[in-house]
Amino acid sequence: MFHWSKWKKRMGASASSSKRPVFDEREDVNFDHFQILRAIGKGSFGKVCIVQKRDTEKMYAMKYMNKQQCIERDEVRNVFRELEILQEIEHVFLVNLWYSFQDEEDMFMVVDLLLGGDLRYHLQQNVQFTEETVKLYICEMALALDYLRSQHIIHRDVKPDNILLDEQGHAHLTDFNIATIIRDGERATALAGTKPYMAPEIFHSFLSGGTGYSFEVDWWSLGIMAYELLRGWRPYDIHSNNPVESLVQLFSTVSVQYSSAWSRDTVGLLRKLLTVNPEHRFSCLEHMQGSAHLAGVAWSDVGEKRVEPGFVPNKGRLHCDPTFELEEMILESRPLHKKKKRLAKNKSRDNSKDSSQSENDYLQECLEAIQQDFVIFNRENQEHLAAGLAPGEWCQQRSSAAACV
């Protein structure tokens, strides 16, 4: 098992022993501004590693997506949509974006580093979640989903894999690569999500070409996830290969079975979240706050993270599959830690080639379009501007903060 606390202490000692670099605050953040520490995961759209920003020594998670693979899998639009959404939002129970940038090979998103692992990992480790713990997750996610609704965003992929815990055990929603934005009066229609967590109206709309669906679908997913955390399995036996027609039939014939060991309030709350008709489903913060099933919840304390979670991940360990690091070092054909040398070689090779002899004009065209359209983002600079600091003062503030570390 990887001992994160010892390693982090060692990294801190080595960093403080050498002088921190100072970057020009007017320069766009790029790959060289970060030290790559270790790989911690991979998803459908890319890989994730822990990084440390060289000038501030702050730790982040960095998600990187290979441009060519995104083009081949027709995923560029989804990456751009995720970036568009993340650049506009920030919330205490979301995994927030701090920087986005690109190089010749990859697109990068640098986000909050949450070291408590995702809920799928903890389910696989056979963690027994109590009703009180799951109730807190529901409340924290209710605040996150209510915020997303205020920003016209449907997440469409709420599930244990996409809920990360911080070191204190609080829940944070991540992964917006299939999220969508709908304006007043609009409805979503695409068949998007992870089938076992998708709401009945998504399948019904796809099959019948009905009126579509809205924010209620995320609350159904929250109910499915909460049930799974409590029981160890989901309330419906649904798999990715199930035909849509069979799922529409399933929701009209199969009833959810609740454990007799659960409290009346827990069952009542899950029933409200897992109501097949979206018009009668709990699907906004107002519903939750007015519910007798959550009568004892101090919502302001929840929002300020003052309610202590019942499950706190072990702070001495990194809660992820250790094989991710081995994959990156041994199996990955373009490992991140060798990027600088690789790009330098590619440049010299490109300079010796006649550009008219491109093997794949279409690929080159797409790569150029990404290079042109990609939006570089720096939340740190945005916060400085919002605070009324002039660019010359940013460095001074960083230096003062560094002296306090």
TrEMBL record:
- GO: which molecular function terms? ATP binding; G protein-coupled receptor binding; G protein-coupled receptor kinase activity
- Where do the segments described as Disordered lie? 337-358
Report if keyword Endoplasmic reticulum is assigned.
Answer: no
Q: Which UniProt keywords apply?
A: ATP-binding, Kinase, Nucleotide-binding, Serine/threonine-protein kinase, Transferase
One of its Pfam families is Pkinase
Q: Where does ATP bind?
A: 63
Positions the record marks as coiled coil are: none
Q: Where is the Protein kinase domain?
A: 34-294
Q: Biological process GO terms, please?
A: G protein-coupled receptor signaling pathway; regulation of signal transduction
Q: Basic residues: which segments have biased composition?
A: 337-346
* Family label: Belongs to the protein kinase superfamily.
Q: What is this protein called?
A: Serine/threonine kinase 32C
